[in-house]
């Protein structure tokens, strides 16, 4: 052990001396010094002594004792750090898994599990070592405790009787304790059941993570007997926590960065993206372009005054059945670095946002906070299909969350704020299932005006009736299914067939492109771009009624386009996304001109488009004030 201690002290001298000095300062002032710890990277241990590094993984308790004893004996501290812990993090790749991947060889070893926190309990005191007094002779017996029911002594060491016992709380040892549920991230479990594990956190690890956080929990992988069965459950006894702040880990190699830069600097990066979104879906290019912008999104910030500006782009598709909305949404889920998908048929308010309930999760009847879809997708894309099938009162819970990007959960005097930096892609059918050409748009949707106003883009997806277009789509569907069949049978495809079923680029590379842009690009507009955005919104807001076919100035007593300032901000966010696709920190006039048709088309689809919109439709028979776009 002396050799180990000398090597650990060498490591402290070389890389952790400043951190230990800061720890000593905090230790002297702390009311709870047992909550403090020194974070040490595993690779650093392996560099000075590979045996110590391996011992930490294979014999976690012995390794932990060795590291903490070395910290207590470190000569450069004025005060002994008697209660501070050492937390080993950044475990090697071969000892780090996604939830559900650990196996029997990892039992009783220190491993890292990557996942998302979906539930957590409150922090409560837990018995670490219970002091029992014998009622007959008064002898004290001390019993280490687990995390379930209290373990009592078998017999008294004084009178050798088997009780009765009295728990002496004042002489027992207690720790702060919290249980969290770590679940496989939704984008890693597409098409299957998500694995999860309960993790027990104590002392300085408690209250550091919230429901919805993406983390790597490093801890001891333990089996738990389920009654008298041979098949055991597992838990993780936490030793350290690494919180994932961004999605930048998606771009994890220099060669990936080079490929991303090559795509962004190609002649037409926007076409590359569109061709990579659901290649077997013919048409609806405007939806694919809008999805590409939504995946890259704008960037959020807070002004010195405290006002919050969201960057997430929200989009709603309202369409006839069988128009391919779900297939496009599946493509968005695949490309987004982070995503979570649900449907309105079975999603309650709690399932969409978050909930606080009292249940048996943890050690008993405790309050737990569970993350819903938009919280679990924070930093990425939340997808809600069949949104029209959900209860309208449940959908109202999305209203504040979509704008503030926070979910507030309150119950029984308890409060929690969860991050929901999430773009929402929602789709549904009009009232009655199909669009009725004799009815106005606002009469064919049950979503309330405040929620509709949160969507930057609203598109209608209607059945195609043009003979040539229907024939073209039909041919594409038949050819795509044939090509998919030939691929499944291992047959060679023609170049044309490959284009019909293969994306323009590897979806994983597109995900890395999105992650890189969201992490590294924070574009601001040129003066010319700002002028163009102002010009567009002003023209949209106050132009004369003559812009509407058949409208006379004397017949119109209100603004021709009662849109709100939210549309100006939507245009700004879309322009930011356009610049991010190019990995640029500058929004140009070209970016603004690129996204204006997307806004025009959206307005046209709900019946209030300005002149020159992509659909060529201009109507003045819709009371848009009810929609509040």
Structure characteristics:
629 residues, alpha/beta, mini-chromosome maintenance (MCM) complex, chain A, domain 1, OB fold (Dihydrolipoamide Acetyltransferase, E2P), Rossmann fold, 5-stranded mixed barrel, 5-stranded parallel sheet, 19 helices
The helix count comes to 19
Helix content: 25-40%
- Main beta-sheet strand count, sense and barrel state: 5 strands, mixed, barrel
Structural domain tally: 4
Residue-averaged pLDDT:
82
Return the structural class: alpha/beta
Compile the SSE list and pairings.
Layout: H1 2-29, E1 37-41, H2 42-48, H3 50-58, H4 60-72, E2 85-89, E3 96-98, E4 110-121, E5 124-134, E6 140-144, E7 165-167, E8 173-183, E9 196-202, E10 214-225, E11 232-244, H5 254-264, H6 269-276, H7 285-296, E12 301-302, E13 308-309, E14 315-319, H8 325-335, E15 339-343, H9 349-352, E16 354-359, E17 366-371, H10 373-376, E18 381-385, H11 392-395, H12 398-404, E19 406-411, E20 414-419, E21 423-428, H13 449-452, E22 457-461, H14 467-488, H15 495-501, H16 507-520, E23 524-525, H17 527-542, H18 566-581, E24 586-587, H19 589-605
Parallel strand pairs: 1-2, 3-4, 9-11, 14-21, 14-22, 15-18, 18-21, 23-24
Antiparallel strand pairs: 4-8, 4-10, 4-17, 5-6, 5-7, 5-8, 8-9, 10-11, 12-13, 16-17, 19-20
Helix pairs in contact: 1-4, 2-3, 3-4, 5-16, 7-18, 14-15, 17-19, 18-19
Short account of what is shown:
By secondary structure, this protein is α/β, with parallel strands linked by helices. Helix content is about 35%, strand content about 25%. This is DNA helicase.
């Amino acid at each position: 052990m002396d050799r180990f201690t000398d090597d650990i002290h060498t490591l402290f001298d070389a890389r952790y001396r400043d951190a230990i000095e800061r720890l000593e300062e905090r230790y002297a002032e702390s009311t709870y010094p047992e909550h403090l710890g020194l974070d040490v990277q595993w690779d650093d241990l392996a560099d000075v002594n590979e045996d110590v590094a391996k011992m930490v993984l294979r014999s976690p308790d012995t390794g932990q004792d060795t590291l903490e004893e070395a910290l207590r004996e470190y000569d450069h501290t004025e005060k002994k750090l008697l209660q501070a812990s050492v937390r080993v993090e950044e475990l090697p790749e071969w000892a780090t898994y996604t939830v559900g991947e650990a196996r029997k060889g990892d039992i009783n070893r220190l491993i890292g599990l990557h996942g998302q926190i979906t539930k957590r309990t409150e922090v409560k005191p837990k018995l670490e070592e219970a002091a029992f007094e014998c009622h007959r002779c008064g002898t004290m017996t001390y019993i280490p405790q687990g995390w379930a029911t209290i373990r009592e002594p078998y017999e008294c060491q004084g009178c050798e009787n088997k009780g009765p016992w009295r728990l002496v709380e004042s002489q027992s040892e207690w720790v702060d304790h919290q249980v969290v549920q770590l679940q496989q991230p939704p984008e890693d479990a597409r098409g299957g059941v998500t694995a999860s594990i309960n993790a027990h956190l104590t002392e300085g690890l408690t209250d550091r993570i919230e429901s919805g956080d993406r983390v790597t929990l490093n801890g001891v992988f333990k089996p738990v007997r389920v009654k008298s069965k041979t098949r055991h459950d597992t838990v993780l006894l936490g030793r350290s926590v690494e919180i994932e702040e961004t999605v930048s880990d998606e771009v994890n190699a220099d060669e990936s960065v080079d490929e991303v830069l090559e795509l962004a600097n190609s002649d037409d990066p926007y076409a590359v993206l569109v061709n990579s979104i659901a290649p077997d879906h013919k048409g609806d290019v405007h939806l694919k372009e809008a999805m590409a912008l939504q995946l890259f999104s704008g960037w959020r910030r807070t002004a010195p005054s405290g006002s919050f500006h969201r960057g997430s782009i929200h989009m709603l598709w309202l369409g006839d059945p069988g128009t391919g909305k779900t297939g496009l949404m599946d493509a968005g889920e695949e490309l987004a670095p982070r995503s979570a998908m649900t449907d309105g048929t079975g999603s309650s308010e709690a399932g969409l946002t978050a909930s606080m309930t009292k249940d048996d999760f943890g050690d008993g009847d405790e309050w737990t906070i569970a993350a819903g879809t938009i919280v679990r997708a924070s930093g990425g894309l939340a997808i809600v299909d069949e949104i029209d099938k959900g209860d309208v009162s449940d959908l109202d819970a999305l209203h504040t969350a979509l704008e503030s990007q926070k979910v507030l959960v309150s119950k029984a005097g308890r409060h929690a704020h969860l991050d929901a930096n999430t773009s929402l892609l929602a789709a549904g059918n009009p009232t009655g299932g199909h669009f009725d050409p004799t009815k106005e748009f606002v009469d064919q949707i049950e979503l309330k005006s405040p929620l509709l106003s949160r969507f930057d883009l609203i598109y209608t997806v209607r059945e195609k009736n043009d003979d040539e277009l229907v024939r073209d789509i039909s041919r594409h569907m038949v050819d795509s299914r044939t090509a998919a069949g030939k691929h499944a049978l291992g047959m060679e495809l023609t170049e044309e067939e490959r284009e019909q079923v293969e994306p323009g680029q590897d979806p994983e590379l597109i995900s890395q492109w999105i992650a890189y842009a969201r992490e590294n690009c924070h574009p601001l507009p040129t003066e010319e771009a700002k002028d163009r955005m102002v010009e567009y919104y002003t023209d949209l807001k106050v132009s004369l009624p003559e812009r509407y076919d058949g409208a006379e100035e004397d017949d119109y007593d209100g603004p021709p386009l009662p849109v709100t300032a939210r549309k100006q901000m939507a245009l700004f966010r879309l322009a930011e996304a356009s610049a991010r696709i190019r990995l640029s920190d500058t929004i140009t006039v070209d970016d603004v001109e690129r996204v204006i048709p997307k806004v025009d088309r959206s307005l046209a689809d709900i019946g209030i488009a300005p002149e020159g919109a992509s659909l060529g439709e201009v109507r003045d028979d819709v009371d848009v004030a009810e929609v509040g776009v």
